[in-house]
Design a protein that fits this description.
single chain, 217 residues, alpha/beta, Rossmann fold, Arc Repressor Mutant, subunit A, 2 domains, elongated
Length: 217
Amino acid sequence: MISHSLRLVVVDDHTLFRRGLISLLEGMPEFQVVGQANDGEEALKVIESTRPDIVLLDVNMPQMDGIATVRALRSNHQTVKILMLTISKNDQDLLGAIRAGADGYLIKSTEPDDLRKSLLRLADGQGVLSPEITAPLMRALAHPDTNDHQPFLSDRELEVLNCLAEGQTTQQIAACLFISENTVKTHIRHILEKMESSNRTEAVSKAIQLKLIQKNQ
């Protein structure tokens, strides 16, 4: 049984969704929202200062995404419960979050009462998972050899990696993929984090070794 209001931090880069979620949670007597953040980097500071019981964390965010944030929290030996709350049903995001140390993974379309029950289960030490992603998780776990030692890169990140392997600059990649240079820089930052690489050349080299991309002749 929970003898006190659970302290929550909400992390999501979509302001409208974040504010709506906070309003919803504040209407539930079991919870107290003690902080909020727009991205992972800001979240780490908020979590450090507020010491919540549970963090609700989006997967896809600028600056530092949700999976990198989970890794950072776990590397600091944070015992806080982490619930991914996202629109992504992508196998890579799901497995990446769980392997990084997330305690639960829910889709944003979850009904309010189901969210409330999930948060209470998390606080009680149980894991939670949206029914919609049970099948993708089972499929991914059924093929461990293809997933165990490979970083989880999105299709767009693989496109950027291929461009890097061709020696393209940030400006050239932006023009080739019809995205902004800032978006390219964000993708590269995520690639370096996921590949555990200190620079672009190292990331490309690792990607070739893992056969994520083809070596250019």
